């Protein structure tokens, strides 16, 4: 018999879960994410398994399979979810991983590196002593700083995560 623990997914109030999903999705939209990917991500994050089929997502969010498909495609490109086949089935499940934030930031790190390269080229093209060249050099220095800080922060996160949750 279970102790007076947290309710299982079946025992939870669906309205309360929906309120969380929509509220967290609204926060993600406010931060710049598209609405449907935000809703799908929040629904996956709030499921005990962390994985749902397109049909399950459509049912939970009351949206069409096409809306789910587009959202999942975007989230996969951002390294926030992965696709996996159900054993013995052609159906795909979409999974959010416990390290999705790490993966998303790591993906951003690669983008920052490309921006740094382009900015270096811009500084060279415009001349480091021109007003535009100095502006690009300062922008480049900012991204170099951010890149270093993200790397250091992610290392601190790995240590913190290991201590708190027992896995790296």
UniProtKB/TrEMBL annotation:
<protein>
    <submittedName>
        <fullName>MarR family transcriptional regulator</fullName>
    </submittedName>
</protein>
<dbReference type="GO" id="GO:0003700">
    <property type="term" value="F:DNA-binding transcription factor activity"/>
</dbReference>
<feature type="domain" description="HTH marR-type">
    <location>
        <begin position="32"/>
        <end position="92"/>
    </location>
</feature>
<keyword id="KW-0805">Transcription regulation</keyword>
<dbReference type="InterPro" id="IPR036388">
    <property type="entry name" value="WH-like_DNA-bd_sf"/>
</dbReference>
<dbReference type="InterPro" id="IPR036390">
    <property type="entry name" value="WH_DNA-bd_sf"/>
</dbReference>
<dbReference type="GO" id="GO:0003677">
    <property type="term" value="F:DNA binding"/>
</dbReference>
<dbReference type="Pfam" id="PF12802">
    <property type="entry name" value="MarR_2"/>
</dbReference>
<keyword id="KW-0804">Transcription</keyword>
<keyword id="KW-0238">DNA-binding</keyword>
<dbReference type="InterPro" id="IPR052362">
    <property type="entry name" value="HTH-GbsR_regulator"/>
</dbReference>
<dbReference type="InterPro" id="IPR000835">
    <property type="entry name" value="HTH_MarR-typ"/>
</dbReference>
């Amino acid at each position: 018999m279970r102790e007076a623990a947290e309710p299982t997914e079946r025992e939870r109030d669906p309205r309360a879960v929906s309120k969380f999903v929509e509220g967290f999705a609204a926060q993600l939209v406010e931060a710049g994410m598209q609405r449907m990917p935000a809703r799908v991500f929040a629904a996956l994050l709030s499921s005990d398994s962390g994985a749902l089929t397109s049909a399950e997502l459509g049912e939970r969010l009351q949206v069409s399979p096409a809306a789910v498909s587009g959202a999942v495609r975007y989230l996969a490109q951002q390294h926030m979810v992965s696709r996996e086949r159900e054993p013995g089935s052609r159906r795909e499940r979409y999974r959010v991983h416990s390290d999705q934030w790490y993966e998303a930031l790591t993906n951003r790190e690669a983008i920052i590196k490309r921006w740094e390269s382009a900015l270096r080229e811009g500084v060279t093209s415009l001349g480091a002593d021109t007003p535009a060249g100095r502006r690009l050099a300062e922008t480049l220095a900012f991204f170099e700083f951010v890149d270093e800080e993200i790397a250091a922060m992610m290392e601190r996160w790995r240590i913190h995560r290991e201590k708190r949750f027992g896995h790296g």
